[in-house]
Records
---
Amino acid sequence: MRRETRNVIETEPVGPYTLLRVERGEIEPGSPGQFFMLGAPGRLLPRPMSLALAAGNELGFLIDPIGPGTRALCSLEPGDRIAILGPLGNGFRLDVERPLLVGGGIGIAPLPYLSERLGNPPAVLGFRSSWHAEAGELVPNAEVVIEPTYVTEVMPPGHDVLACGPAPMLEAVRRLTPHAQLAWEAPMACGYGACYGCAVEIDGELKRLCVEGPVLEAA
Ligand SMILES: Cc1cc2nc3c(=O)[nH]c(=O)nc-3n(C[C@H](O)[C@H](O)[C@H](O)COP(=O)(O)OP(=O)(O)OC[C@H]3O[C@@H](n4cnc5c(N)ncnc54)[C@H](O)[C@@H]3O)c2cc1C
Ligand code: FES
């Protein structure tokens, strides 16, 4: 896999988040839940980002500006060049009969692309404020709840759950639906198995989340 360089098309605000739209060229979008390492110009380390949208000749990334790397990506301008490596890791299995997408906060990032690939199934999305909830408009067919209501209070039973969000939300979803597919996060320096920066304990063993995940079966 090669690190590619692409032009930024636009950065658009979506509530407190930024939708970064980049020219796709020959880059494969991969499966929903896979991720790309994105490097802003002048930044040493790239940052892992899920693919949010793959429309036409574009790749779209929904980014929460929480630190220097994400802030640099959110302040890119049209025509700026960006380094892209991916798609990386294991995405969601799409061979599910009754999909339900569950997302929390910036964890909704992979869900617009996942929804498109699954034919717009129902979704439940949780946010901490109505400003954050503006991002819910990117996911069709979604019920949006705002704290103090949590997604686990409105999840209809009897579905194949595919979820991405903060760790406490994923733990709560796992307790309710032991066969859910969950997309986890860990700090990642390389994204392809070389640095062990993303090692997490799975089944009592240390495993690299960028290789084994980021999507794992809840069980
Ligand atoms: C597979 C994967 C997909 C991701 N997809 C998206 C996405 O689509 N959109 C998005 O906005 N973010 C996504 N993230 C998270 C994003 O990569 C981090 O927020 C980013 O790397 C932080 O970089 P920074 O330089 O802005 O902040 P830093 O200064 O590096 O971090 C700021 C704070 O966040 C903590 N932190 C940083 N990275 C992580 C992490 N991965 N997990 C938990 N805590 C962390 C740090 O410890 C620190 O406290 C994803 C992460 C992974 C692993
Ligand atoms: S991020 Fe380097 S091994 Fe996973």
---
Amino acid sequence: MDNNKLIHPKFYFGNSTQQLEFDKVFSKNWLFAGMLSDFLENNSFITLDILDYPIVIQNFNGELRAFQNICPHRFNRIQTKTKGIDFFICGYHNWSFDKEGNVKSIPKKSSFNESHQDFNCLKVKPLRIEIVGKFVFVSLDQNSESIKEYLGVFHDKLLEVSLAIDYNFYFEDDLQNINWKLIVENVVEAYHCPAIHQNTLYNMGFCRKSEVNNDYYNGHSVADYPKSDKVDEGNKLLKYLDNIEIKHDTFRHYFIFPNLLISSTEGTSIYVGNILPVNSEKSILRKRFYSPKFRDNFIPKEAIHKAFLEMVKTSINQILEEDKVILEQIQKNMPFVENTYFLGKEESRINSFHEKYLELI
Ligand code: FES
Ligand SMILES: [Fe+2]
């Protein structure tokens, strides 16, 4: 293995890589920022920080707009919560802004000597925004390629995943003492499953066979992890799940470079993970869990489906916790690691991630 093609351990800790990654990775590529279901109502918004860069996406009477979340007056954050429904008003001196980011109203405006023209140059910085199916992306780069070019074949794959997704039933931000790249590398291989997820994924019958249907483009990747034939199909009560819109008999996992993770367990539940790097040694894992969409007009029995989703929530959170324990330990080891040497066949998606990262850095 040519280890020049692998990311050196020094990129996983300390202060030196943060600015470099912001400039070369996060401010140059399209970034997943939310799901359409986050913005159902007028004035609903989501905020996210990428290595301290504050972003807000807000619904303005049905139109989604993205901005740098900084007020042009005295530089306060405009939306301060993670998500919610509120006017686009800065809480420091109550200036409000329209959907273009222009100043809409200013308390005691006459106390400023400036003319109307001067206020016109003050603007909340708009960011590019694109919607692919139910996925919302932003770009900090006004000149970057289109989202379609950026995603390539993964554009249509996201449209297909969107058809499988119904409503969100769980949202949580989890602060983890882990470099964002370690989180990516962990989820794009199932090689660790028999050891780490013995009582969860492995017991459910996944990760005993090799991954199939791999596809790669521009750092993005997907793979299917088939279910073992030896596993008992289990509870007949869950037979109603045969009515979901998109069914497959694998654990399917997508990675959209640099920080979006999507997994679907046989189509019956969908997890959307968004890694928000805080610094080189901390990340927020923003977790969203979705109910599957049912075909035709099938309506599941409410109590049974609710109990199923509760089980999904416990199970995904347990898997994520199992990963977090290992990765926080690995993060502590990184300053003492001298090089990365080998990746096996079951780690080929890590390889494609490293190649894309090194191409940018
Ligand atoms: S800083 Fe936002 S209104 Fe003053
Ligand atoms: Fe895992």
